[in-house]
Amino acid sequence: MPFKFRYRVSWVDTDALGIMHFSNYFRICERTEEEFRILNRLEVPGISFPRVHAECDYKYPLKFMDTAEITLEIGDIGKRHIRMEFRIYNETKNRLSAICNIVIASINDRFEPVEIPEWFIEKLKNMK
User: What's the structural domain count of the chain?
Assistant: First the structure.
């Protein structure tokens, strides 16, 4: 079942035309991920998860004061990476606004790749 988060587009998110700047779609994806991780207590001591790949297909703009619903689903889970799939819906216009994918890798405090603990992988799989 996907995790859902709501976001209202702020003035600071937009360009001179009042349209949300393309880079801010990734920012609201990260806000969604942050809420998901906090609510599910998803931390692994000694392991960080930097972004190694990000892509977004833009379908319909979000504008100042629009409300967006962002869904997060865990995609592919490997030994050293996790792919997260985000769908951003413009609730104000009832249209799909964007589909974004972000891949995170697992590293230790020396920035070396490490395997994700099996307990963490199982916890994520149980959330699918």
Answer: 1
